[in-house]
Amino acid sequence: MAKYDPLETHLKRQTTASYEMSFRDIERILAALLPKSAERPEWWGNETRGDTTHVQCRAWLAAGYHAHLHKGQDRVRFQRIAR
Asked: Which of 53, 65, 47 is nearest to 8 (CA)?
């Protein structure tokens, strides 16, 4: 199991178009701390390239969401991707 698989599973269970989580919520789901770099918007980039090195974004993209950091608040809004 990859580190961010529990986040993907959690997001797939959500039924709302927009879903917010604190860093602490995410860390509980992962059973691990987020890296310090998670405080930067770039870490939450929604990269769709298959060769991306940002493995974390694969979790929310696979669950059908884009991530948007609330800078300075340690919160992230996941917005469902229109299909």
From this structure: 65
